[in-house]
What does this fold into?
Amino acid sequence: MANIAILSYYSGVIERGVETFAYEIGKRLSKNHTVTLFQSGNPKPFQKFKTLQIKTITAKPQTHYGFFGKVYLDSHSLKILFFSLFALPKIFKGKYQFFIVLNGGWQTVIVRIITKLLGEKMIIPGGAGIGSDDAWNLLFRPDAFVALTGAQANWSKKLTPEVNIELIPNGVDLSRFNPKVTAKKLPLTGKIVICTSALVPYKRVDLTIKAVARTADLSLLVLGDGQMRGVIDSLGKRVLGGRYLRLVAKYDEIPGFYRAGKVFTLASQTEAFGTSYIEAMACNLPVVTTCDDSRAEIIGDAGILTDPTDTEKYAKDLEIAAKTNYKNRPYEQSLKFSWNKIAEKYANLIKNLSK
It folds into this structure.
């Protein structure tokens, strides 16, 4: 039995892929290990494994931009720094053998120093994806770097061949996301396109709105919030009118919204993994998304890979996916990502690192 610490700054504040990962992996690993989740927000009600709330400056996530963001001196990075520093007394007291680090930046630096001093292990899931943030994580030579896709694993091995690279995707809770969920009733006409996304520039929700506007009978439901809400809502209402709706939904409500749709889409320029893909597929929705190696690996034959910058092609692909009978292919694809299977792979990784 190992004593495991998971550091997830925004857990208890919001529920994105990272925070879902922290909860789901913690819940499953705690069956055979001692797990403590360090977070800044309030614990989930009836959470069965230990949570330590580190009270510090909390805010909704931001994407770091410009020079200060690149050197982790922007406000977002500094909040994670303070969170990690404030956690230190409880970290030393807890005598943890494994640290699962989810926020990168200064958190990676601090935990790497701790693990070197104490002779313990650091595991970093590659939640940032191919690029500078995970290159930074690899720079500090974690005891295991978990690539979420084969493309990320190949990139990581080329960059740091001496680091232990493990290929383990993110998971989906199939008891929550599945085709038997009751569909929500929505005030939209025609076939509904679902887009679950933070409203930030790289997600390119504006491209989705423009593509749906080129179709005759598709409506768009955007589930999400963020710094671009004003721009996105203005565009959606202007070009789609009554065919546009944006909601901020609780995580428990999202499966019902998926079941109300005919197709799921996300036009983001980059995605480390994209948990929303597998959640949508688990509800048996085909996926239309940006074409790259990672997404091809995740989606398989359960959707269409497209170029969202080509509005006409993107619109056509949405229409094709919405009218195509995929049978149970999306759901069957999602079965590869069951959280129980993913947690077993993490348990084996911890076992191997313990030797």
